[in-house]
Amino acid sequence: MKITIITLFPQVFETLLNFSILKRAQDKGLVEFEIVDLRIFGGGTHKTVDDRPYGGGAGMILKPDVLVSALKSVVDPELIPQKSKFKIKNLKLKIILTSASGIPFKQVKTRELSKLEHIIIICGHYEGVDQRFIDKYVSEEISIGDYVLTGGELPALVLADAVTRLVPGVLEKEEATLEESFEKNQLEYPHFTRPEEFEGEKVPEVLLSGNHLEIKKWRKEKALEKTRKLRPDLLERV
């Protein structure tokens, strides 16, 4: 998989994409990260990438022509999904805009994206992005929560991290992802490790029993109990 991130602040990604599982994925040749500096496609002496909104209002808007130039520098224009024509020329490519107006980012979307060959993430910034660019070139707008950030760089990192760990071969034990929180619309069961007793609290006896059927049953019950307590909204989706 290739994940391209188009951003005004490429330095944000220099360290964060090169540690832990993300670095391991690159070292294994399973995932390639490409960071594109949007500023180099800006116009004029000052490499301008934004302008005032028509109709007035606060903030600046990212220019559609600048975004298209950046987009076409990383992918063959013939492969770019054309939403306005109601067809997708390449089902293995998606162009995502990080946006407070986007659909909420869920685990099911992470799994969907992990099956693609190329994801292009455009980091929104300032007041927003020209709607004409969104309508014609963006496959999906994605939000990581009901709040507003200064830019789309942090959401882009969240997407890259969440998707990368689900790419086959990245994790040593891929089966671990099948029992995580938000799989099957519930939270993961509680975990315990050594020491066996900590500040007067002991590890549940069932986990020491060696009875795998009973352990599996206990974990299922505790996962449901935890979900009811902390995220009952997840159960309402079932």
From TrEMBL:
Residues 1-236 form the tRNA methyltransferase TRMD/TRM10-type domain. It is found in: Cytoplasm. The keyword Methyltransferase applies. It comes from the Bacteria. S-adenosyl-L-methionine binds at residues 124, 144-149. InterPro entries: Alpha/beta_knot_MTases, tRNA_m1G_MeTrfase_C_sf, tRNA_m1G_MeTrfase_TrmD, tRNA_m1G_MTases_N, tRNA_MeTrfase_TRMD/TRM10. Keywords: Cytoplasm, Methyltransferase, S-adenosyl-L-methionine, Transferase, tRNA processing. GO terms for molecular function: tRNA (guanine(37)-N1)-methyltransferase activity. GO terms for biological process: tRNA N1-guanine methylation. GO terms for cellular component: cytosol. Pfam families: tRNA_m1G_MT. It catalyses: guanosine(37) in tRNA + S-adenosyl-L-methionine = N(1)-methylguanosine(37) in tRNA + S-adenosyl-L-homocysteine + H(+). Its EC number is 2.1.1.228. Belongs to the RNA methyltransferase TrmD family. Homodimer. Specifically methylates guanosine-37 in various tRNAs. This is tRNA (guanine-N(1)-)-methyltransferase. It comes from Candidatus Daviesbacteria bacterium GW2011_GWB1_36_5. The lineage of its organism: Bacteria, Candidatus Daviesiibacteriota.
